[in-house]
Amino acid sequence: MQNYGLYQWADNNFIIDQGLIKVNYGNNPSLLEIIKKIRNQNIKGPILLRFEHLIEKQIKTLYENFEHSIKENNYDNSFHAVFPLKVNQFPGFVEHLIQKGLPHNYGLEAGSKAEIILAMALNRIGAPITVNGFKDYEMIDLGFIAAEMGHNITIIIEGISELESIIQLSKHNRINPNIGLRVRLHAGGIGIWAKSGGVNSKFGLTATELIEAIELLKENNLLEHFRMIHFHIGSQMSEITPLKKAIREAGNIYAELRKLGANNLDAINIGGGIAVEYGQNEQCIDRNYTIREFSNDVVFLLKEISEQKGVKPPRIFTESGRYIAASHSVLVAPVLELFSQDYQLKSLKLKPKNPPLIEELNDLYNNINQKNSIEFLHDSLDHLESLFTLFDLGYIDLQDRSNAETLVHLIIKKALYFNRENQLPEMKKLQHKLQERYLVNISLFQSMPDFWGLKQKFPVVPIHNLDQKPIRSASLWDITCDSDGEIAFNYDNPLFLHDIDVEKEDYFLGFFLQGAYQEVLSMKHNLFTKPNEAIIEFNENGYNIKTIKEADKILDILENIGYDKNKIYKNLKDKIQNSSIIHDQEKTDTLAIIEKYLSQNGYLRTIN
Ligand code: PLP
């Protein structure tokens, strides 16, 4: 039975049992059971499930691994972490993250004014806040206000002009936030997001600027507030080697800056970058290291450099985001329709007299066997090309063309069957010709923008029927009017789904590892908005669907993009009332129908 690569990407968070995807926690509910409970409350369409226990698991694992490495290496300093808000700012995630982070003194990272305000409002006093990104005077002022509130905040400087704002603000006799400097490393990252690191990166101070910054801090009596250096070489680091290079470089910069008199500098912030395994098969592995290898390497290298340079090892900070957030949410969506390319024998309508090539195709179909299957297959594909040419030239009619397509598809099916143990690439490619298009009630632009923009893959798995063999090679269509809204057939690793009749049965697909970046990067293409959302918490009695938030209603969607919703409603009402086509006695009913539609979300609704 197909396992959809769970062993690789699911990190034991989900299991397959009795044909269902189940949550591997508490009373092991199936995703189908959870979805049905939500749908019974008349919430249909795509549903984003957030699992609180998976947020807690990731936080714990991060701390446990670093604490283990620190102990094992006799590292003479501590580990700290902040969550970068840019990865997921939504309350359904952040509020639980903060609660579960309390025992670890887990903090937040902010990269904009809105994020710093969020961090100031939500972060526990004493838990660290780091501030990255480009800042104006006002944003730095917010950092001072946070420090005056009692927050343990570090403003990380991206350029000398930001330092000048700090100098100006500190003249007003105020409590100073900690100062950090982002260093521009020579070492770069790897993968799609590698450009966050390296000499040409958008961020950080060069060696010359670092020296200039130290001088400025000294001149203005602020050097004592300089506590941290920071770097981030890019998200989703697929290999560990670039990180090791970056740690060596940053460790040496740290020691050199201390030599220049930065005596209170005692922390290195290594940014984010721990990769998540999204791959669904052995040929696509996204990460060549474990979290333990990662923490061991960071701790070991920083210890080694500190010993070599005779400085106290730094406190270690991470801003890991994707690793913390990705696994906690799953998007489950119903398949609405199958656009079949499957040609059945019943559609073959041979004539009493057929063109010779069709007769030949018919012979191939009737006589194909295990031994001759590849040869017959090649012949049939050749014949099909010739028949297309004959059609274009007007020598055969539409019925002949239909018969040709049907016969060739039937031959492909037989050839695939005879070669089912044969892993020839050609056989995989043939699935392309038989693929089925599954129309799924989601917008890829809204729910998986990184797939649209960067071809970032997310595991896709039917959440039920897993005790039956999936036999249809599939591509997925979303419901936007855009041909980019497609997870196209993958020649190397075709997705196989079940042969179902959606008129008679529900079929749900789960899109996993949705929790990092996707929600906030989402696009309202075709005015599809955030899907429905439900938070699942586990307790001693099983699980509880804590909060259900329905997707935006159509009138609200229009208001959100700037329309006056009362005006929109009035226009519709006036047009119904003034219509000479709708009978007067039907106008009230028509208006009621419109009102119902306006108060529903924009996703498609199935009748059942
Ligand atoms: N810190 C900084 C400065 C970043 O720019 C980012 C992401 O780009 C992160 C942390 C989070 O990275 P990740 O989600 O890969 O852990």
Give a description of the structure.
The chain contains 21 helices and 20 strands. The chain is an alpha/beta fold and 608 residues long. It folds into 3 domains: 1-42 and 324-520, Beta Barrel (Lyase, Ornithine Decarboxylase, Chain A, domain 1); 51-275 and 294-320, TIM Barrel, CATH 3.20.20; 554-598, Helix Hairpins, CATH 1.10.287. The strands form 3 sheets. Strands 3, 12, 13, 14, 15, 16, 17, 18, 19 and 20 form a 10-stranded mixed β-sheet that branches. Strands 4-5-6-7-8-9-10-11 form an 8-stranded parallel β-barrel, surrounded by 6 helices. Strands 1-2 form a two-stranded antiparallel sheet. A hairpin with a 2-residue loop joins β1 and β2. α12 runs parallel beside α14 and α13 (373-392) packs antiparallel against α14. Pyridoxal-5'-phosphate (PLP) binds next to α11.
In brief:
By secondary structure, the chain is of the alpha/beta class. It contains 21 helices and 20 strands.
